[in-house]
Amino acid sequence: MVHDGSLVTQASILEEGMNKSWQTALQRTIAALGIGMAAWGVQAQSTDPLVVGEVVARDRCAVCHGPCGQSVAPNFPRLAGQNAQYLARQLHAFASGERKSTAMSEKVKGLSPSDIEAVAEYYARQKPGHTPSGDELLLSVGRFVYERGNRHTGLPPCATCHGPGAAGTTELPRLAGQHPQYIMRQVQAFKQGSGARDNAIMRVMSHRLSDLELEAVAAYLGNLK
């Protein structure tokens, strides 16, 4: 049987091209798996909690909160400079279901207690950000309400619980430098009872804050460094 040489040549070229494409695809897959396994290896084998925390932050948290805890969108809170023990408590609460969030429950799934402690410590050591405001009058109102409250409406100073610098504690979050819109949304959630958690004190305080006072306090806190 006689074969057409041109057909044989074309078939060989086609076969060679397919082999190269397959090899390239395989190499890319192996490389991708290598990167993923390398990241997992750092997390699994490192004894430095900050290294583990950085890997967890990059792989699980960075999309929303930023790799260094400086979220760009006010939908997500800034975590940089947050109290490590407070942050770890919240992550454990998401993991146990005490705090309800489909997104956060998925993110903490599979994390060990030491992973959670590590990422909390990592974010706590990052430099806090803030949201500068040039509205000096609004900031003055916010500072007054935060530090002195409003005796006419029975509103105690926010600083009573959150401290003069709003730096956070093991029980309360750092509010200094937080996105003002995020703060306002959380207070409104306490007021409406629509949040994933409740707090009797914040529920009362939220009802005593006027819209102007809330906006002013949020601006003042966001402006703090």
From TrEMBL:
SUPFAM superfamilies: Cytochrome c. Gene3D superfamilies: Cytochrome c-like domain (1.10.760.10). It is found in: Periplasm. Binds 2 heme c groups covalently per subunit. GO terms for molecular function: electron transfer activity; heme binding; iron ion binding. Keywords: Electron transport, Heme, Iron, Metal-binding, Periplasm, Transport. Residues 48-127, 137-225 form the Cytochrome c domain. The lineage of its organism: Bacteria, Pseudomonadati, Pseudomonadota, Betaproteobacteria, Burkholderiales. InterPro entries: Cyt_c-like_dom, Cyt_c-like_dom_sf, Cytochrome_c4-like, Cytochrome_c_Oxidase_Subunit. Its main location: periplasm. Heme c 1 binds at residues 61, 64-65, 104. The keyword Coiled coil does not apply. Heme c 2 binds at residues 158, 161-162, 202. It holds the Pfam family Cytochrom_C. It comes from the Bacteria. The keyword Iron applies. It comes from Tepidimonas thermarum. GO terms for cellular component: periplasmic space. This is Cytochrome c4.
